[in-house]
Sequence to fold (316 residues):
Amino acid sequence: MSLKKGKVVKGLGGLYEVLTEDRSERIVCRAKGVFRHTDLKLLIGDNVEIEQGEIADQTVISKILPRKNQLIRPPLANLDMLFVVVAAAYPSPALSTIDKLIAIAEYNGIEVIPVFTKKDLCESKQYEEIYKKIGYDVFSVSSVTGEGISELESFIEKKLTNGICAAFAGASGVGKSTLLNSLFPDLSLETGDISQKIERGKHTTRHVEIFEVNEKGGSCGFLADTPGFSLLDFVHFDFFTLDDLLPLFKEFSRYTGDCRYSDCTHTKESECAVVQAVARGEVEKSRHECYCELYDILKKKKSYSYIDKADKFTKK
Fold:
């Protein structure tokens, strides 16, 4: 048997597609049986070793190499950048979903870029300013008119070099796949419509898949399309703990040292500098509301461990 290294770029029905380290071939194989008897779950984006036999059935993923990070939702490993995609309208923007995704990315050391879609339906400037003020790069685009697409494309070309891996993630129906098709027409991703009754999208992307990003004939980086979702469950999933929460809302840091009490929770105390900054409009109210929501959940929750595909959990 020969030993090769590569990146898992796709997985369906127990079969995984591995792009070799030199990007010369894609090898379809299964994970070695030993993974079924451990807590380590193979993720798209994993860097792995494969044992390649003389026939296809003898080729298996034998080892998962150390990860820089791993996400539960979207389920990815070794991510460098996360484009948090949200519609400016239809469905109406859920700022709490953006803030939760940003918090998850910040905790995992992943660069965050908010992207507002469907600019042709609604002006998104009021939302853009929330995140620009914090210091994030923010884009507003329309896949219908093409507005903002070239600016985002240029940003991606500059950032996705030397094997950098980025993902587009967001709720169902915000236009992730449509946007990716506008940026990279060769992908030809399936897109869907929005339910007019509930303003919720259909899950046209059903699995995570990583694509190579090529510029002027040379391979540069990787880009992932991910399934949409309707919620981020902080009750049953351990994204991070209460002790981790405060630094993830980085605009709070300039105020936290001015609170009267050292054990301030920064949720509702009258002499809390963060609460006072919200009242003055220096900290966005929606961001503080999300922080308070997460604080309340994480303060009360038990620790859980995800154990299988049937959404079963075990208390730690």
